[in-house]
Amino acid sequence: MCGIAGIITGREIGLAQQRAQAMSDVLAHRGPDGKGIWQDTNSRICLMHQRLSIIDLSPASDQPLLYGNYVLVFNGEIYNYRELKMELQQKGYRFSSAGDGEVIPAAYDWWGNNCLHRFDGMFAFALFDTVKQRMLIARDRLGEKPLYFHARYAERGRLDHLLFGSEMKALWAGGAPRVVNNTLLGNYISLGFVQNPIVKTDTFFKEIQNLPPGYLLEVETDAMRFVMKRWYEPFKQIGHLPAVETKDENRVIEQFRDILLRSVQLRLRSDVPVGTSLSGGLDSSSIVAAIDVLKSKQGSAEGWANVCFSAVFPGFEKNEAAWSERVAKQFGISQYLVQPDAGDLAKHFGEMMYYQEEPVQSSSALAQFMVYRQAKEEAVSVLLDGQGADEIMAGYSRYSHWYLQQLLRTNRGEMQAEKKLLQENGMLEGWGIGNYLAAWLPHQTAQLLKWKAVRQQNKSPLHPDFLAASRDDNTLFKPHIRTLDDMLYFNTFQFGLEELLRYADRNSMAHSREVRLPFLSHELVEFVFSLPAHFKIRQGFGKWILRKAMDKYLPAEIVWRKGKVGFEPPQQQWLQQQDMQEMIRESRNNLARAGIILPSEINRPIAGMGAHEQGNYDWRYLCAATILK
Predict the structure, then answer these.
(1) Between the CA of residue 470 and those of 18, 181, 590, 596, 621, what are the distances in Å?
(2) CA 492: distance to chain centroid?
(3) pLDDT tens track for 57-116
(4) The whole model's pTM is what?
(5) From residue 457, how far is each of 186, 190, 368, 460, 504 by CA, in Å?
C-alpha cells in the first residue's frame, strides 16, 4: 500500500524536481517508509512513489521499481504474487526481491494487458516501457485503490501534459486547477449523492477525473495521446450457473465457503502484523471465523496478529459492543475498543475531510477514521474489513423490495411467504401499491424515481440561481430494475460501493494503515453473482449463503440475528454539541455567501439527524463547505 503520482508532458518539464517533489510530499501519509522519484532522460516523464512497507521490507522492493526496460510505481497488493512468480519463473523470468511489485512488469511483458486478468489483488499502478515509450495506467476491478488524473491539451487530440496520482491533492500540488463541480455539489446537498451514477470519471472537481474501477489508460508518450479502456467487464465474467450445478445447495454453500477461506488466506500474506476491524455484525465476524478455520487446518494463519479493533458507542441504541466482545472472546482475540464522541468529531472533522477530499455521507466515516487511528497507535499495519458483503449478497433491508418484486412476477405464493418472514425479521420497511407497480413497470418506475429526485431538488435549500445554473437531470439517473441482481449489480459496479471504498482507503491511509477486503475477491464476487437470487435472500434474511456457510462457526445469535444494524454512530446527538453547532453555522454562512444555499438557511434551528436519515442537510453543509476552500 503506497502513494503514487506521475507527470507526462510533451516538452521538457519545467521545474521538474520541485513539481515532482511537491506531488510526492503531499502523499507521504500513504507511504512513510520510503520515497523515490524517477525521471526519464528527456525530462518529459516523472514517476513518484511513497512506500508503505507491507510485503518484503527490504530495499529490494523500493519503488520506482526498474525491471528490464520497465519502470513501475504501484499502490496496493497482488495477493497471488507467489503463484504468479512461480509460473513466470518457469517461462524464464527472474526476480530479485521477495515482494509482489516485480510480478507486474514480468506479467505484462509476457501477457500484455491480459496480465490484469491474472492479478488477484487491489491495485492502481503506472508501468512505463522505456523502449516503446508507452505507459499503462490501470486500476483494479472493484476500485479498492484510487487513481485520479488531470489532462490538459495543447491541441485537439494531443496532450500538453497529463498528471496522475493516488489522491487529488497530488494533482493540485502539480499545478492542476481546483474548480468545484457545481452539479455534483448540488446533487450532494439536495440528495446526498457522492458520485455521478452515469459518468464514472466525474469528481467534485471539474479538472480532476477519476479512473473508473476496472479501467486502464494507455498513453503514447511520444505522440502525447491516450485512450481509456475498460479491461474488466463484469458481464463477461458473471453468468448464472446451470440449474444442475445449484440444485445441490450444500455443495454450493461449500464452494462459497472455500472461496471465502481462500480469499482470507491470501489477504493474510504480510511481513507486518495483520489485525481486523470487528463490529460484531455478520460480515466482520465471518472474517474472524474464517481466520480461526484456517488456523485449525494449518496450525497458524500467516501474518495474523490475533487483534481486532471495534468502534463502540456506550448508551447509544445501536451500540454493538456486546456482539463484538462476544466474538472476540469466543476466538480469544485481543480487542481494542474505540469510543469516538462529539469531541472527536469536532477535533478531527477537518483533518478527516483533508484526507477524504470529497464529501462523505455521514459521521460513520469519522468512527472508521478513529478505528484506523487506534490501529496505528497499536502498530498494527494491516486490517481486514468486511466492506462489500452487503452489496453483493443483499445485506441491506432495501434489497428486500427488489427481491419481492422479482418473486411477484415469477411465484406469487413464494412472494407472500417470503414477505411475511422479511417483515418478522425486521428486513422489510414498508410495502405498498407502488411496489406492485414497480414489479410490472420497471421503466416507468425508474422515471418516477427520477422525477421524485427532481422535485426533491426543487424543494431543497439550494439557491434557485445556483440550481438553475448547475442542474443536470441526467445525473439523477435511476436504473431499470427487474431483478434483485439488477440492483446488486448497480450498487456494486455503478453507484454505491465505490464511495465506501473511498472512505476506507482515505481513512486508513491517513494513518498509514492498509485495509484488505476479503469479500471483494473477484472470484468470490463473480461466484455470488452467478447464483440465483434465493441464495442471497431467503427465509426472511439477506446474505443467506453467508449465514449458511458460517452457521457452524459462529453463535446462532450472530448468524441469524434479525434486522440490519449498519455501522452507525450517534450522529444526531453529536450534532447537538456546541462545537458542532458552531461549525454548522459557519458552514451555512460560507455556502450562503457563495450563493449555493438560501440565506434563510443561516438562522434556521439546527436539528441534527441520524447518520442514515433523509434530509440530512446540516451534515452535508459541513462537508460541502470544506471543498470550497
Answers:
(1) 36, 9, 18, 10, 17
(2) 10
(3) 999 999 999 999 999 999 999 999 999 999 999 999 999 999 999 999 999 999 999 999
(4) 0.96
(5) 8, 5, 30, 5, 29
